[in-house]
Amino acid sequence: MQINPINSRVSVNTKGLQYTPGVKPENGEEDKSRNLIKELDKMSMMNNINIGKKDYEMNLSMEELEKRTHKDYLTTKKMLAADATEYLELADGDKEALKHLVKAAAVLDKVNMQLDNPNNLPFKEYLESEITKGNKKAELTKILFDAQKGVCSLDRESNMIELAKGVSERPGKGVYPQDLEKEEFHQILINMLKSGKVDDVAKILNQRSVVERVGNELVATDYVDKFKDDFAYMASELEKAAETSTNADFNEFLKLQAKALRTADPMLDAYADKKWATLQDTPLEFTITRENYSDELTETVVENPELKKLLDENGIVPTAKDFLGGRVGIVNKKGTEAILNVKKFLPLMAQNMPFKDDYIQNITPDCKDSKQTMVDADLVAVTGDVGEFRAGITLAENLPNDDKLSIKELDGGRRNVYHRQIRLITSEDAREKMRKRLNATLNPDLHKYYNDEADHWFTVGHENGHSLGPKSGTEGLGKYKSIIEENKADMVSLAMLDILTEAGMYTPEQRKQIIVTYAADNMMTSKPTLSQAHRVRSVMQNYYFIKEGAMEISPDGILNVNIDKMIPTARKMLEEIIQVQMKGDFSRGEKYVMDNFVWTPEMQTMADNIKKVSKTLNGRVESPLADKLLAEGG
């Protein structure tokens, strides 16, 4: 997955610092009181039910809310307009199908909010009630809530914004009991395994279950059973869309996906995923995205030696929980044709991967069919996990991930979907902001090489990079797995530039543009926390490239890039990453990340420069065509 933040490429929607802007630090008895309230609030939320709290109190001051909802601080990404040409040119059957697809995707906002935090829906209802009473503070809070799709979220500067007092983000999000701590979690699993409850533990540690307390144990419920009514409604809408859509392959996928939404059987999702990954020439795009970057609890089990040994003995591979998103779009044929140019080079890229003979890749050097489809989509709606604008928003995705059964059991392929409305810079105001950023951060001699379209070319390489390298065996890296995988995808994109330029994929000028644009966009406004996989990997890369002499940040925060050193340095880092992935050892992965996750004073100076020219803290999505289709009903 590639993330597009507000003014650069590296940000992600995961947990950050527990800091509330606009609220002065409390000391003494006030601080003790506040901490006690938070602890009592956690205790009241056993089994993901906020049983003790009927009323909420908004956390941000009016001053802070007015600032964060002002257009200078809250950026907007607009999906297709209600009268977009792309929509008007669709066949009538596809227009009708699109209406049902939008309705299906909208349900994922409700479902994913529950996976994210059990307070999300009750707090949303509270805000709506207060708005009917004319509460201006509730109106502004609701704007931020709708933007980030939740009560707790990171902003652009890695601050955790808590919209309700006493409500914070937990490592297990909404998929585990709110009062469950890591040490108790591990001990419960150890006790259950020693009692012979192997199947129960396997269900707890899989991607698609909500976990609750039952006595002294934990019990997992499959998503399909947990959200039975919502999923059944989605299935019905997909079936209706399949009745009118003009593409037979797309309709077959919709029917398979509908079936998977009605029955709790992971193989049904696998069949739907396998079909989805073959879709290439369809007018419409629909995806239920399932990615597991947000769960910070499941993969901690590999850190406990006793528990890790028991899991290995019982053949249980822990996988972080999936969070669900919806994507509805219209396939852009011209953009898709341009992206597809890379497909013929994928075997060449596989052939040039480090240590290629020591592991299995999704794409092999000698394959004639890469099992990799790619589309450029004009977006109608992004909902749930994929639509959360939490410091950044998804720019493109390569799915299904390696943990999915369509890859592991059915030898299925993968599909890249690129998000046009999120990546495109169309307004002169946005271009002026970018010019100011470059003036504040990049050596003037390199400005001629900066090209925002080159960021898209780099992203194409990144997404295909996920299909290269070790196909399995990285689970032991635990919480560092995602950081290292995202790092690998970036380095694949950069390390292959000379090979692809020589093969004719890029011109020498485009090669320079990709290098400089990557380096400039990799700079950030704050030091992230370890839970932010996409941002952590960017700090690692910046530190590594500076250490190797490929990049330099001056004392006044200006970036210079040694273009000749960039690709060899990327190749060196890629080789190190692949070795870490092949080993699959938690301690080795931790050491590699921590050795390179270094935030230097020069990085901080550059971050300060960026913040001087860009006030943006949060972002939101507007979907006028989707809103129109939802209002029409039918």
Name the overall outline. globular
Radius of gyration, rounded? 24 Å
Main beta-sheet strand count, sense and barrel state? 6 strands, mixed
Helicity, as a percent range: 40-55%
Structural class: alpha+beta
Number of strands: 14
Beta strand %: 5-15%
Please mark out the parts with pLDDT under 50 across 5 or more consecutive residues, or reply none. Answer: 6-53
| Mean pLDDT metric | 90
Tally of separate helices: 28
Question: Secondary structure elements and their pairing?
Answer:
Layout: E1 2-5, H1 28-43, H2 62-68, E2 74-78, H3 85-88, H4 92-116, H5 120-132, H6 136-148, E3 152-154, E4 160-162, H7 182-194, H8 198-204, E5 209-214, E6 217-222, H9 223-226, H10 228-244, H11 248-262, H12 266-276, E7 284-291, H13 305-313, E8 323-331, H14 333-340, H15 346-351, E9 372-383, H16 384-387, E10 392-399, H17 405-408, E11 414-419, H18 420-423, H19 428-441, H20 452-465, H21 481-495, H22 497-503, H23 508-521, H24 533-547, E12 551-553, E13 559-561, H25 563-583, H26 586-596, H27 601-613, E14 618-622, H28 624-632
Parallel strand pairs: 2-14, 9-11
Antiparallel strand pairs: 1-10, 3-4, 5-6, 7-8, 8-9, 10-11, 12-13
